[in-house]
Amino acid sequence: MPSQRIGKTLKPYVQKARDAALLAVEVYNKPAVAFKSSAYIALMVMAWTALLHAIILRSGGKPYYKAANGRFEKIDGDFRHWELGECAKQFWKDTPHDPVRLNLEFFIPLRNKIEHRYLPALDNAVFGECQALLLNFDEAMGKHFGKANQIRECLSFSLQLFPTGESFAQAVKDNKNLAEIKKFVDEYRGMLTAEVAGSSQFAFKAFLIQVANHAAKDALPIQFFHRDKLTEEQKQEFDKFAVMVKWKDAGGGNKGFCKPSSVVEQVQAALGNPKVIRPGGMRDKFNSSTHQRCWKYYKARPLTAAVDPAATEAKWCVYDPVHKDYVYTPAWVAFLSDQLKDDEVFAAVTA
Hints:
By secondary structure, the protein is mainly α. It has helices at 11-28, 36-58, 84-91, 99-114, 122-125, 127-145, 168-174, 177-191, 194-197, 232-244, 260-270, 288-297, 330-339, 343-349, and strands at residues 74-75, 78-79, 275-278, 281-284, 317-320, 325-328. It has a two-stranded antiparallel ribbon with strand order 1-2. A hairpin with a 2-residue loop joins strand 3 and strand 4 (281-284).
């Protein structure tokens, strides 16, 4: 843990980061604000940028751009600081798949896409990522600059009415401006590994279940428990509720899923379109036969003629009872593209 003392150089950065985060939360929790995400994301990008500048400066780094002559660039007499994307790239240069980094990098292009648009339907669609963005920020603030600068003591549980019944998918049908945003959100989530997608540092999700009033007068009305601190028995019990509230698109069919041929095409391209010599000439290294070996190895779906053909690994594969075949998720494509870049893994999986 670094020293809790913050010198005159760092103090403006830390104060700016803290104030921007508090303003972001205040705007998001205002009932009269219809489009919360736009202002929240813009302010949290500002907060994270100032925080990373402070962290990098404290570690002895210089978060400034250099000119061709090797000197630091200046604009109106001030050093030209790195934008958030460059800060993230430098700070997590050894951990490109860190869920905190990927959560942060999700919002950088998203902010640019929504900055000049009025899209209130986006709020519920990215709530989990927005919540993780704030929790990650406060965790980093405490780690590097002490509990005194964290904002968690300034916050309380926001009183909210029931969320809107309109789904993001339905909103896209009614608003063409949302189509591009939804495409970006879906593609970004689809490229994540299963580990990152399931991390609370990428998207924080919680269940609020109403219970009878506690007899103790001093009992807290709301308490949060981190999932990783629950016992295995408790986790299994809460996971039952997760199954109960999973959304299904009743009218969307297989929209967003990939046929096996599409999986083969995408993974082969992601691997750099490698070729192998086989009897009869050259052929793609990743092909339909290779894909079959992959879903068997990772148990993404049951074998042909299984008693329960729908017993798939839902995050990767879904059974289509109408066509009696299988379709695959973008997460499956991303998973294979990441795993099979390692030649040893490729050999083991396809042996």
